[in-house]
C-alpha cells in the first residue's frame, strides 16, 4: 500500500458523504480529489432541509472538525413536527428542541454543502467532470474517463455519485426500482408575508398531512421559503396516462386537485398556491439488502450504496457517517484493501437495516390508514 501521503484517492460526487470523506482525509494529510458533474457549486438547487442526527450526521461533522460551524448555521426550531388529517385536524404537534445542541436540528442542504466545500483545500473539487467510465488497471487501480476528455488514475475510487451511480457498476448489477410513490414538488416564497395562513399551518418545521395513500408535506427552509410535496401512491407514468405535460402548471394543478378531492382548503392551498411551479419526483430505492463482493480499490457510500426512501430520515445522515467511517478506516488500516474491507463490514449491515426501516416507513405513510400508522410511529419518537 502506498503511504497515506501518496495515495491517489478519487471521490466521484460532491454530495455530503463524499465531501465529509474528503475533509477527514485532508485533515490527516491524505491527498484527495473530488469529481462532480455540476459546472459549479451554485449550478443547481440543493433541495430542502436535513435533520442532523447526533449518532450519524453530527458525529461525522465532529470527526471533520465542523460541528461548531454546523451548530452556528442550524435551525433548532426546524425540528418541530406536525401531523394532520385530510380535513386539517391536528393529530400531533411535537415541539422543536430548545437549542441546536439538542434533538436533531435542521439545516438547509445548500448551507451544509457550503460548509463542507469551504472546509476543503482550494482545487479539491473538480467541477464539470461527469464520469463516463472507470477502467480497472489491475492491482486495485482505476483510470477514470470523463465526458470532458479528462482522465485520472486512483488507488482508491469512491463512488459517492448518488442514485444512478456510474461507479456502482464496477461492484453490482443492482439498479434503483420505483417504490410506487411519487412526489410532486412545489413551493411558497416569502411565505410568512405572502402566504401567512399556509405558513401558520406549516409551523416552524415539517408538517405532514396523510390519508389513504396520499400526503401533503410542507417543510420550512431558510429565507422564508416553504418546500411542499404532494405525494401519491400511483404508477410512474401517471402524467402520461392523464395526458399531462409536466411543464404545464395548470394541467398538473388540475390533476392534483382531483387526486386530493375532499381535502381541506388550506391543505389544498399548499399545493395550488405555488410560486415555483411543479417538479415530478418519483421515489426510487435500491434492493434490500444491497451488497457486493469486495473488490480491491473501489467502494461506495451514500445513495450509491443504499438509496432508500426519504421516510427513513437517514439518507444524508448515513452518507456522512459512511464518508467519515471510510476515511477513518483508510487512516487506520494496515493496508488499503484491509481498510476498505473493514469499512464495508460495517457499512453493509448498517445500511440494510436502515433501508428496511425506510421501506416500512414509506409503506406506512402511503397506506389506507396512513395517518394512524404515522401517528403511532411519530408518537413513539416524540
Task: Please provide a written account of the structure.
With 382 residues, the chain is of the alpha/beta class. It has 2 domains: 4-75 and 98-175 and 286-365, 3-Layer(bba) Sandwich (FAD/NAD(P)-binding domain); 177-285, D-Amino Acid Oxidase, Chain A, domain 2, CATH 3.30.9. The chain has 13 helices and 17 strands. The chain has helices spanning 16-27, 57-63, 67-73, 109-118, 191-194, 196-202, 238-241, 249-259, 265-272, 303-306, 315-332, 336-365, 370-381; strands at residues 9-12, 32-35, 49-51, 81-84, 90-94, 106-108, 125-126, 131-138, 141-146, 151-154, 156-159, 177-188, 206-211, 214-220, 226-233, 279-285, 298-300. Strands 5-4-13-14-15-12-16 form a 7-stranded mixed beta sheet, with helices on both faces. Strands 7-2-1-11-17 form a 5-stranded parallel beta sheet, with helices on one face. The protein is globular, with a radius of gyration of 21 Å. The model has no long low-confidence stretch (mean pLDDT 93).
SSE topology:
Blueprint lengths: L8 E4 L3 H12 L4 E4 L13 E3 L5 H7 L3 H7 L7 E4 L5 E5 L11 E3 H10 L6 E2 L4 E8 L2 E6 L4 E4 L1 E4 L17 E12 L2 H4 L1 H7 L3 E6 L2 E7 L5 E8 L4 H4 L7 H11 L5 H8 L6 E7 L12 E3 L2 H4 L8 H18 L3 H30 L4 H12 L1
Structural descriptors:
2 domains; FAD/NAD(P)-binding domain; 5-stranded parallel beta sheet; D-Amino Acid Oxidase, Chain A, domain 2; single chain; alpha/beta; 382 residues; 35% helix
Amino acid at each position: 500500500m502506498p503511504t497515506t501521503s501518496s495515495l491517489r484517492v478519487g471521490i466521484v460526487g460532491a454530495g455530503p458523504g463524499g465531501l465529509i470523506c474528503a475533509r477527514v482525509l485532508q485533515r490527516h494529510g491524505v491527498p484527495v480529489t473530488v469529481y462532480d458533474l455540476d459546472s459549479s457549486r451554485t449550478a443547481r438547487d440543493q433541495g430542502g432541509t436535513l435533520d442532523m442526527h447526533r449518532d450519524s450526521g453530527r458525529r461525522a461533522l465532529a470527526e471533520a472538525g465542523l460541528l461548531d460551524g454546523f451548530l452556528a448555521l442550524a435551525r433548532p426550531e426546524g425540528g418541530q413536527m406536525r401531523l394532520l388529517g385530510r380535513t386539517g385536524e391536528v393529530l400531533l404537534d411535537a415541539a422543536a428542541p430548545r437549542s441546536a445542541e439538542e434533538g436533531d436540528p435542521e439545516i438547509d442542504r445548500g448551507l451544509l454543502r457550503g460548509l463542507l466545500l469551504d472546509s476543503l483545500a482550494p482545487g479539491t473539487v473538480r467541477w464539470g467532470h461527469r464520469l463516463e467510465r472507470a477502467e480497472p488497471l489491475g492491482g486495485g487501480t482505476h483510470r477514470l474517463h470523463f465526458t470532458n476528455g479528462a482522465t485520472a488514475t486512483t488507488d482508491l475510487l469512491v463512488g459517492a455519485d448518488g442514485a444512478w451511480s456510474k461507479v456502482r457498476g464496477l461492484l453490482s448489477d443492482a439498479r434503483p426500482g420505483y417504490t410506487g410513490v411519487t412526489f410532486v414538488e412545489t413551493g411558497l416564497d416569502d411565505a410568512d408575508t405572502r402566504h401567512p395562513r399556509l405558513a401558520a399551518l406549516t409551523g416552524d418545521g415539517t408538517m405532514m398531512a396523510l390519508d389513504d395513500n396520499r400526503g401533503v408535506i410542507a417543510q420550512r427552509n431558510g429565507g422564508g421559503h416553504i418546500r411542499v410535496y404532494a405525494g401519491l401512491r400511483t404508477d410512474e407514468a401517471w402524467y402520461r396516462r392523464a395526458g399531462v405535460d409536466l411543464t404545464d402548471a395548470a394541467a398538473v394543478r388540475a390533476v392534483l386537485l382531483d387526486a386530493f378531492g375532499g381535502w381541506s382548503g388550506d391543505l389544498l392551498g399548499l399545493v395550488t398556491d405555488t410560486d415555483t411551479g411543479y417538479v415530478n419526483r418519483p421515489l426510487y430505492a435500491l434492493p434490500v439488502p444491497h451488497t457486493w463482493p469486495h473488490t480491491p480499490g473501489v467502494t461506495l457510500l451514500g445513495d450509491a450504496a443504499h438509496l432508500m426512501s426519504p421516510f427513513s430520515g437517514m439518507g444524508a445522515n448515513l452518507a456522512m457517517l459512511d464518508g467519515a467511517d471510510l476515511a477513518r478506516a483508510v487512516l487506520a488500516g494496515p493496508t488499503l484493501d484491509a481498510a476498505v474491507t473493514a469499512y464495508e463490514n460495517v457499512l453493509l449491515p448498517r445500511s440494510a437495516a436502515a433501508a428496511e426501516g425506510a421501506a416500512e416507513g414509506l409503506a406506512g405513510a402511503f397506506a389506507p390508514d396512513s395517518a394512524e400508522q404515522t401517528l403511532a410511529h411519530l408518537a413513539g419518537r416524540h
